Amino acid sequence: MNPTDSHFNSHPLNINGVQRHLPLFKVQPDLAIAVLNILGDTELTEAAAAALQQRMADINFDVIVTAEAKSIPLAYALSVHSGRPYVVLRKNYKSYMGEALSTETLSITTGKTQTLYLDAKDRAAIQGRQVALVDDVVSTGSTLAAMRTLMAQAEAEVAAVAAICTEGNAEQWA
Fold first, then answer.
1. How many CA atoms lie within 13 A of 91 on its CB side?
2. Which domain holds residue 48?
3. What is the spatial distance between Cα 90 and Cα 173, in angstroms, rounded to a whole number?
4. For the chain, what is the domain count?
5. What's the CA gap between 85 and 88, in Å, rounded?
6. What predicted TM-score, i.e. pTM, was given to this entire model?
7. How distant, in Å, are the alpha carbons of 8, 9, 20, 107, 165 from that of 3?
8. Where's the Phosphoribosyltransferase domain (predicted)?
9. What is the DSSP letter of 88?
10. What per-residue confidence (pLDDT) applies to 174?
C-alpha cells in the first residue's frame, strides 16, 4: 500500500452501513490511537445513536450521562432516540453550576489531568436514578472511571455503559 494513500494511516469503521476511515494519532512514542471525531458528522452520530439505542433497548435507565465535549452530539442523539434526558459532565467550573461535585481524570489525548464537574441542577436530576454512561470512545477507561466516581458521589446507579468504539484493555474499565 502506498504510504500517501489516505487509508494507510487510518482505521476503518462501519456503523450501521456508515463508513469512515479514522486517522491514527500518536499520543505517546509507542502508542497511536484511532481518532473518532463525531463533531459535525451528523450521519455517523445518528447511525451510532440508533445502533446504541437498539443494543440498550432492554436496559432500564432514566438519564444519559456523558463527559464534555466530543460525545455530546452522541448523548443528544441517543436522548432523542430513547426519549430520555441527558446530562453533561463539564470540564470547567462556572459559578452558575452551584455546589458542583468534581473528580479528576487523565486525558489520553493530552496526557494531562482534567477535572470533571457535575453541577447542582444535574446532580438533582440523577440522584437516586439509573444512569447510562455514554462516551464516543473508551480507551484507557480513565474518563469512564471518573464518570463512575461522580455517579457514586451523586448517589446515582450506573445501569449501563455505552460507547461507539472501545480500544485497549477492557479489564481497566470496571
1. 13
2. 36-173
3. 20
4. 1
5. 10
6. 0.87
7. 6, 8, 18, 29, 25
8. 47-168
9. E
10. 55
